[in-house]
Write a structure and sequence with these properties.
The complex is a heterodimer of chains A (about 500) and B (about 600). Chain A has about 500 residues and is mostly helical. In chain A, about 75% of the residues lie in helices and about 5% in strands. Chain A has 19 helices and 2 strands. In chain A, strands 1-2 form a two-stranded antiparallel ribbon. In chain A, a hairpin with a 4-residue loop joins strand 1 and strand 2. In chain A, helix 1 runs antiparallel to helix 4 and helix 3 runs antiparallel to helix 18. The longest helix of chain A has about 35 residues. Chain A starts with a helix and ends in a 5-residue tail after the last helix. In chain A, about 65% of the residues are buried. With about 600 residues, chain B is mainly alpha-helical. Chain B contains 25 helices and 2 strands. In chain B, helix 5 packs antiparallel against helix 6 and helix 6 packs antiparallel against helix 7. The longest helix of chain B is centred in the last third of the chain and has 47 residues. Classes of the chains: A mainly alpha (about 500), B mainly alpha (about 600). Chains A and B meet through helix 5, helix 6, helix 9, helix 11 and helix 13 of A and strand 1, helix 5, helix 6, helix 23 and helix 24 of B.
Chain lengths: ~500, ~600
């Protein structure tokens, strides 16, 4: 059988090597390699998707010995939680490469970094070995750091510093926790499957490991009060970087929360779940209100990420608290689907803001007005994506949030106050649409060109997927549910 | 294809086609809605023969989506189709000169499809989805002329008001699914428990938002910024009707306390918004206030435990209010305004249109033999026979008097005044749509006995209610025609003109605190940002200090670690590649921590 997971995982790296080898190739060729490689990667991800997952265990596992003496090995595989995220990653990277085909500033380095980032991202989701996971997790941070530093906007000094502090602080506790889990397992191994099947730590040690992991993943997700890097990084990152950062890399946090914190220290997680739930609820509401106060369109979308990822945290915490397996499955289905939906919707929104900024060189909402008249395609795409983001039924976020809220009511009715977030996000998006796209058109923007073919190619698949997930979520949820319904902890 | 799916898919595919080809939009729209009409009539015919259909669609795990045809749902589906068809016929004329016709017709069709889904939905998730989607499409329609000033705000307000109230539906649905484990509407009702009452009250909140009941009535009057066919559709058979439809549908399951609460909300609304209608300066806003008032009457009937009476009024009102708005649209085109002082005498310009308008107005007031009389009679009879006859009965009669008064006021203004002769484009199409609905407004009551048979339920006859209702209606008409709104209201007039807003209304109570909270978050955000930045600067300064002491010759293990940190910090600042150093530092720190952990492990074991 073909090792399709590994092939998909290392295809982008191969592409990166190819770009490095062809130093004298023109920008067109380099971008062509990027697009072709990521298209092949998407094909690989679809292949993995077609092979599917199985209940109760990881599927399509591929394993090679690495450091047998310490129990570390190259192990990759997927289940219903990671597979949708792999597919999401492959889709977003392909679209990002298409979008970035206009980059003329150091295209070689740009494409190499992006391809490395793609391998790191897929690796983070498919690793079944904790050391391997940590390596991919770290490498992705490094790539993103250089993306912001190298291709960012005016104020990258501070953004880079901010990102630097957080990555330094953020990763170490996870390493500690991994070492703790390693020392607790008997015989010593880094195999995540073993850790999930037989949680190695108990009591205080488990709680300490959990706290360490929560710290790392709270920075990454991001959760209040560790989210302050997010708006800064997003505003300064290039549009493509923002899409990957929000669409893929924020999921490392919630994926880790689920895969590591919940599955490997389940008892401690249950003990701490109320605290995590409170943080999730607060984070979601805080993100919504902070977004309402923004005047910069990109910052606004960045803060809605805090809101949406807050719902994921709520979903995971509720799953930990749930006593009935059915309710737990509902909560986790919602949480995983919410990650996918957020990747699609926020990806589309950041692309759109990037397109707007390319044209207007500003993101201040008050400087626009009536743009629907001049750029109808861009405007209506934004309206659709914005309504998806505020949770309109028939679009991607609704089924996910519905399940999270439903499970919340059944487990902890008081926490349902988080549902106020959907009104606040409605208010802030309608306000943004009102300021930017409707109202009296301004002469100043009369010559603004509408979407070109490249941009349509980027947006159309995303918007189609947003509708597809919203109208018939079962094509994603069936895969997710196969795993979540069989979870035991 | 199942006619159940066809009812929705026909308008939906017509909408998609219009957006793709962008021409012949009016013809395609009529085709789409026509097919849906045939399909829903077919369902109704089946229902009369006692055959019903169910369509199961994949939804969430364990919670499939259901479409059901039963007597009530097919009846409502036919209502939506008929009103939708006439309004679209009218819109062919009304929108003749608008360059963005394709967008208009596409959204209208989407709106109709969403409403059909709402009435045919058999499970709570699909109902909730349709409920929100009609809110979305009315947002797009109210904001159709998005370039005009004030339009955006009106659309925003409509969506936000209704969405806030929609939280009630969300919570009620969660409670019901949690209590019964099923998302099916028919199967789910926890009997006699605490949850039943709580869920019912949350549903009431949702219905109050959609049906514009006090204190959530304000958005509807501002929603007049959209094209007139939109108002006609959303006031008669769609958006606003959704609240009443929901309550009519579930009322047999509701506990008595919840019913009484519904009745009181409806009764208070019918009186308050009736007074607002008397004070209005704008014809369309007057009609909007009257919509709230009539839905209030329907809620009274639901509260009195006779949902069939509410259903009759819903059906009659759909035709009547549709006709009234379509008439108002003609006057608007003819005078380029809907302000009452501008439309004075507009009825004389178009006597036929005025005849249709007046017929509908008299029907709304409740004059026999028009359909409104029978419907209103049923509502009053239900209120008079309820357990709370004093409250519900008096409020229902007061509402009826007010209905007569404000309709007579509108008729008088339209009839008394100067004639202006001005050609109105597309009058034939507009007249056709209006005529269809006016005929229905007059004669719909002929169908009431068959509806009673279909639903297997009969209303009790009550001579007292007929006398009381008719005398209330006539009193109202006379007062409205001869006394006038301002004098009737007396000292209440200025307050009524502000829609009885209490201390600044929703803006002061909800919007401003929300924005205040948002600003507070933003300030906290800034403080956090500065805090993190200061930490970063402190770390860099420490690094710098360490370098100085290091350069002076102090060396050792710990300072090597600091040097690593320092060089990383410097590199981050100068944006040069520091990858190797950085990873080295991480490794160093990791090694230190591994050691610490090992020691800890040894100590612990």
């Amino acid at each position: 059988m073909l090792p399709i997971v590994s092939m998909t995982l290392f295809l982008p790296l191969l592409g990166a090597l190819l770009v490095m080898a062809s130093r004298n190739a023109s920008a067109r060729v380099v971008h062509g390699i990027g697009i072709a490689t990521s298209a092949l990667t998407l094909a690989g991800a679809l292949w993995i998707w077609l092979r599917g997952v199985q209940p109760g265990a990881f599927a399509q596992v591929e394993q090679v010995d690495w450091m047998p003496t310490i129990g570390a090995a190259y192990r990759v595989g997927v289940d219903g939680i990671s597979l949708p995220l792999v597919l999401l990653t492959a889709v977003l990277f392909l679209l990002t490469f298409i979008f970035s085909a206009k980059v003329r500033d150091r295209p070689h380095a740009y494409v190499v970094l992006m391809l490395m980032l793609e391998t790191a991202s897929i690796g983070t989701f498919t690793s079944l070995d904790a050391l391997l996971f940590y390596v991919f997790f770290e490498v992705s941070l490094v790539s993103m750091y250089f993306m912001i530093a190298g291709w960012g906007y005016e104020d990258r000094q501070r953004a880079a510093l901010m990102f630097f502090i957080y990555t330094l602080l953020g990763s170490l506790p996870l390493l500690l926790a991994i070492l703790g889990l390693y020392l607790g397992s008997d015989p010593h191994t880094f195999d995540m499957r073993v850790w999930i099947a037989h949680p190695p730590l108990t009591g205080l040690a488990a709680m300490l490991a959990l706290v360490a992991m929560l710290f790392t993943f709270a920075v990454k997700t991001p959760m209040f009060p560790f989210h302050t890097w997010l708006p800064v990084a997003h505003v300064q990152a290039p549009a493509a970087g923002s899409v990957i950062l929000a669409g893929v890399m924020l999921k490392f946090g919630t994926y880790g929360l689920l895969r590591f914190a919940l599955e490997m220290t389940p008892v401690a997680f249950r003990d701490a779940a109320v605290v995590i739930l409170v943080f999730g609820v607060f984070s979601a509401l805080y993100g919504a209100f902070a977004a309402l106060a923004q005047t910069d369109l990109k910052r606004l979308i960045a803060y809605t990420s805090v809101n949406h990822m807050g719902y994921v945290i709520v979903g995971v915490a509720v799953a930990a608290l749930a006593t009935s397996p059915a309710v737990r499955a509902i909560a986790l289905d919602g949480a995983v689907l919410q990650m996918v939906s957020h990747g699609l919707v926020t990806g589309a929104l950041f692309f759109l803001v990037g397109m707007l900024q390319d044209r207007a060189h500003t993101r201040e909402m008050d400087r626009f007005g009536g743009l629907l008249k001049y750029v109808p395609l861009l405007g209506w795409s934004f309206v659709l994506a914005a309504f998806a983001s505020l949770g309109l039924p028939g679009l991607a976020h609704f089924p996910a949030e519905f399940q999270i809220f439903l499970a919340t009511l059944r487990v902890e009715p008081l926490a349902l106050i988080v549902i106020l977030g959907i009104v606040v996000t409605a208010g802030l998006y309608l306000r943004a649409i009102g300021k930017v796209f409707s109202g009296a058109p301004r002469e100043q923007w009369a010559t603004m060109p509408d979407l070109n073919l490249r941009e349509v190619l980027v947006l159309a698949p995303l918007l189609a997927l947003i509708v597809a997930v919203g109208v018939a979520p079962s094509w994603v949820l069936d895969t997710v549910h196969r795993t979540t319904a069989a979870l035991r902890f | 294809m199942s006619p159940l799916a066809l009812v929705m898919l026909a308008p939906l595919s017509a909408a998609a086609l219009i957006l793709c080809v962008r021409r012949a939009s009016a013809a395609l729209a009529l085709l789409g809605v026509g097919i849906a009409l045939v399909a829903s009539l077919w369902l109704l015919a089946n229902a009369f023969e006692g055959s019903y259909r169910t369509l199961i669609l994949p939804g969430l795990p364990g919670m499939p989506l259901l479409l059901l045809s039963n007597p009530l749902s097919t009846l409502l589906s036919v209502m939506v189709s008929i009103v939708g068809t006439f309004v679209l016929v009218y819109a062919v004329g009304y929108m003749q000169k608008d360059p963005e016709k394709p967008r208009f017709f596409a959204i209208m069709l989407f709106f109709i499809a969403a409403m059909q889904t709402l009435v045919l939905a058999g499970d709570w998730i699909l109902l909730l989805a349709a409920w929100e989607l009609i809110g979305f499409s009315s947002y797009l329609l109210i904001g159709f002329w998005y370039r005009r000033s004030g339009v955006g705000v009106a659309a925003l307000r409509a969506f936000l008001y209704t969405r806030t109230a929609d939280l009630g539906l969300y919570i009620a649905v969660f409670i019901l699914i949690a209590a019964t484990g099923s998302s099916e509407i028919a199967a789910t009702w926890p009997t006699g428990s605490h949850a039943a009452l709580v869920a019912a009250l949350f549903l009431l909140v949702a219905a109050m938002g959609k049906s514009a009941q006090i204190p959530l009535h304000d958005w509807l009057m501002r929603a007049m910024a959209g094209p007139t066919p939109v108002s006609a559709l959303l006031h008669s058979a769609t958006l606003v009707a959704a609240g009443a439809i929901l309550l009519i549908r579930i009322s047999p399951l509701l506990p008595p306390d919840a019913l009484f609460a519904i009745g009181v909300v409806g009764g208070a609304t019918t009186v308050v918004t009736g007074l607002i209608a008397l004070a209005e300066h704008d014809l369309k806003r007057l009609l909007a206030a009257s919509t709230s008032s009539q839905y209030g009457l329907m809620l009274v009937a639901v509260g009195a435990g006779v949902p069939l009476a509410a259903l009759f009024l819903l059906l009659a009102h759909a035709a009547i209010k549709g006709a009234l708005f379509l008439g108002a649209g003609v006057f608007q085109h003819s005078r380029q305004s809907t302000r009452l002082q501008d439309v004075k005498g507009a009825g004389r310009d178009h006597p036929l249109v005025f005849a249709g308008f007046a017929l509908a107005a008299l029907a709304l007031a409740g004059i026999p033999p028009l359909s409104g009389f029978f419907a209103k009679d049923a509502v009053i009879a239900s209120a008079l026979s309820s357990n709370h006859v004093v409250v519900l009965g008096s409020l229902a009669l007061a509402g009826t008097v007010l209905t007569g008064a404000y309709m007579a006021r509108a008729l008088r203004i339209l009839w008394r005044g100067e004639r202006h002769q001005r050609q109105v484009a597309g009058l034939t199409w507009m007249g056709a749509g209006l005529a269809g609905l006016a005929v229905l407004a007059a004669g719909l009551s002929l169908a009431f006995p068959s509806i009673e048979t279909l639903l297997g339920n009969r209303l009790a006859e009550s001579a007292a209610a007929q006398v009381a209702g008719l005398s209330a209606a006539v009193t109202g008409l006379l007062l409205g025609w001869f006394v006038g709104g301002q004098r009737l209201l007396g000292p209440l007039a200025p307050w009524a003109r502000r829609s009885f807003a209490i201390a600044g209304g929703m803006d002061a109570w909800v919007a401003r605190p929300a924005m205040g909270l948002a600003q507070a978050c933003e300030r906290l955000e800034h403080a956090l940002f500065l805090g993190v930045l200061a930490t970063g600067r402190f770390a860099l300064a420490t690094g710098r200090a360490a370098r100085i002491s290091d350069e002076r010759g102090i060396d050792g293990m710990i300072f090597a670690l600091v040097r690593g940190t320092l060089s990383m910090g410097k590199r981050a600042r100068t944006l040069q590649s520091g990858l190797v150093h950085r990873e080295l530092a991480v490794t160093m720190a990791g090694v230190a921590l591994i050691l610490a952990m090992l020691i800890l492990a040894v100590v612990l074991y």
